[in-house]
Amino acid sequence: MTPLRQRMIEDMQLRGFSPGTQENYVRAVRDLALYYAKSPDLIEQEEIRTYFLHLKNEKQLARSTCTVALCGIKFFYEITLKQEGLKLAILRPRKIYKQPVILSQAEVYQILTHIRQPKYRVCLSTIYGCGLRISEGTGLRVAHIDSARGQLHLQQSKGNKDRRVPLPDKLLSNLRQHWLSHHHPVWLFPGRGLATAMGPMATSGVRRAFKAALAASGVNKAATVHTLRHSWATHLLESGVHLRLIQHWLGHRSPRTTAHYAQVTRQAESVALASLNKLLTELA
Description:
Layout (H helix, E strand, L loop, with lengths): L2 H12 L4 H18 L8 H14 L4 H18 L24 H8 L5 H13 L3 H5 L6 E2 L4 E7 L3 E6 L2 H11 L23 H15 L7 H14 L4 H8 L4 H5 L6 H18 L1
Antiparallel strand pairs: 1-2, 2-3
Helix pairs in contact: 1-4, 2-4, 5-9, 6-8, 6-10
């Protein structure tokens, strides 16, 4: 490991960045250095601009991928190298506002029934049933389960925040039964080696299992594992659960983020359609 990379990692550790963020930021700087085949501290601002044009026009990377790369590179130059006066913010791709893909309850169950391996089926069922991010699902620990309260106590999730989410009895039973298949003292979904695994199973395997189940289910929507979290929040809204409570369970800092789900509920669409029909009737 080069001294520069070590310094950058230490800077991120001092600021409490998660291991996933550290990995993404280091990868962003490494890819920039590989593109120009020289140490990143020798790369000029105009070269960085050209590199991001390459990411957008030639590699056609998604906005989110480019944004992560920009954040990592910006951190390296402004914090680790302490270079002032760089105008990297202008390279940030314009935000695109899209409504999330939402699965109906029937579609969720249809997809989950087509997942063959039990570990993936239990993990994805938990992700849906508790509104988790994929890393939160695969990274569940035995200590996260509060069976007395019927809750999952998620620690240091996105934004270094702790939160509690309800754990339905059915999921608690499924998690207990799954744990009996490996008896790992720490992880509910251990990686390779099961009982002797040093960490949780990889998120890539969960994504592949979901993608295969989606194709086999016949559900014709551009859904991902994260769609389960969106769908869970929407289904709770449709069931009458208060928006602020859902915000707390999701771990959203701003209620405006959670409010997006209110725009895609069937109840909201029904009210809007009734108003539109009334408007056109009066017009006629």
